[in-house]
Amino acid sequence: MDILRQNRLVRIFFIFGFCFIGLLYRFWEIQIKEGDLYSYLALEQGSRRVSLEDVSRGKILDRNMVSLTGTGMEDRIIVFPGALVNQAEVIRGLAGILGVDISKVAGYLKCGPGYLPYEITSVQSAAVKKRGWSGVMVLPVRFRYGERPLAAHITGHLGKITSREEFLDLSDKSKKMYRYNDLVGKTGLEKFYESYLKGTRPQRAVRVFTDAGGRLLGGPEFNVEEQLEDQERCDLVLTLDARIQQVVEEIMDRRVVKGAVVVMEAGTGDILAMASRPGFNPAYPEQYLESGVKGRFLDHCTALYQPGSIFKIVIAAAALEEGIAGPETTFTCRGDRDNLIHCWAEEGHGNIDFPRAFAQSCNPAFARIGLALGAPGVIQYAERLGLANQSVAGYPVPFNPRQDLDLIGEPFSLVNSSVGQGPVLVTPLQVTSMMNVIVSGGIYREPRLVKEIRKSGGEVVRKYTSDQGRRAILPGTARKLCSLLELVVDEGVGKKANVPVFGSAGKTGSAQTGNGLINAWFTGYAPRVNPRLVVTVLLEQGTSGGESAAPVFSEIMERILPLDRFD
Predict the structure, then answer these.
(1) Closest among 386, 398, 404 to 523, alpha carbons compared
(2) What are the structural domains, with CATH classification, of the chain?
(3) What is the pLDDT of residues 64-74, one digit of tens each?
(4) Given phi > 0 = left and psi -120 to 50 = alpha, else beta, which region is 410?
(5) Closest CA to 432 of 248, 192, 235
(6) Residue 232 near residue 178, CB atoms below 8 Å
(7) What is the distance between the alpha carbons of residues 128 and 151, in angstroms, rounded to a whole number?
(8) Average of per-residue pLDDT values in the chain
(9) 335: alpha, beta or left, given left = phi > 0 and alpha = psi -120 to 50?
(10) What's the pTM?
(11) Nearest CA-CA partner of 277 in 294, 301, 293
């Protein structure tokens, strides 16, 4: 009997012991692990505050820690309605200073403490301060999007939570607290990295303390809180260079109605600029949503297009690598009378050697090389040069199944595919990576857009390392391709891509899309000696690659090459 009693006591001891350990763990969670959060919630219960940020969220930065969203400070009128001695008088006074209807100001005050959504001048600010109203002040508010945010298609935009399902999904994925009126990422990096960017509290706020009934304590005294800790939000550091991105976008605003430009650091695969047109301002996405115009938020840099003669780089690489064509190889081009495929030069090129056929972008010559290679050979080299890889380090764009290089092997597809028409589809970013293979001595590197995720204090949470690369073509083949690309600019159809002083090389492309429309391409590098930059330009509905895209390439290179180093 004593043994049974002892066993029961032991069991009871262990049960109480486990309960006590569980209780201690919960106390540890509340007091230490989540102590800051519960302290903050307690503070929120006993006070009213106005955030001095339009959205509590981590920054999206370029490689030099420059904000790409244009984050900046603007003065706003802050109002705590509960502290107003004579609310009607304050409403009339604010309406007069701002030059708006009294009903609008009254409507904003009904929503509780906050800032009025009006930009104010220094004169208006002085007028508000002069009145000395209790519960009214002018303070700078940090806005996420400034006058000219950059790389909008990459960074994306914010929007309000629109459904219970979205609310529950966000809460589950990020394990953070959401409210139904929160702004969350809807597209781009804002969406992809919502769980990292989302903050739980403002880093700047103005606060007033209240009793249990919501009445002010201690009179109309306000505390402005600066540099508050928010351990939950993180910043994204990209490979982009804001200086280059700005130059590219300025030029595109003048010269590219619809299209894309990608700038890559030669050798590394790091993306220095990626811009798409038509553009949009992420501060006002509703304006574009309401307009009903489709495709405004489409990132053309990662969209699929027929490459046209840009694809002849693949054919040339395969021909050189496999010994099918070389400097002495000749072809006969009869122009629009050629029985295999028509050439863009209606009169034809006559007898032409391989280097000139590349420089003049001769269709019949490359169609015959494609037939000699066979569909498996063309597919193999397209894959080697990265034209089947849609992945970008740090930029998880969904895979587009429309890209299928195996379609080159379908009946009657090889000839058209050899000149970049038919079923061949590529993205401007893939084309840029392909050109980077050539300037890298034949090494393919997956492009990288995000360098790291870090907390505001500088602690790195996640790092995206540069791809070490894989051998795609032999170094000798890469050198021969460089000579061919130089010939395009010196003697061929890409003369308008010449970059004075530095020198350049590249390839044109003119892809027919139907209805007489042409997508104009140019992809190339500069300087010729020790290349530093690879740039791809795509203009939808252009004239030709040599006439439309090449001059844009040249202007971009002339503007960005003189900049300091990009690391």
Answers:
(1) 386
(2) 50-71+144-204+226-237 (3.90.1310), 242-560 (3.40.710.10)
(3) 999 999 988 99
(4) beta
(5) 248
(6) no
(7) 37
(8) 89
(9) left
(10) 0.88
(11) 301
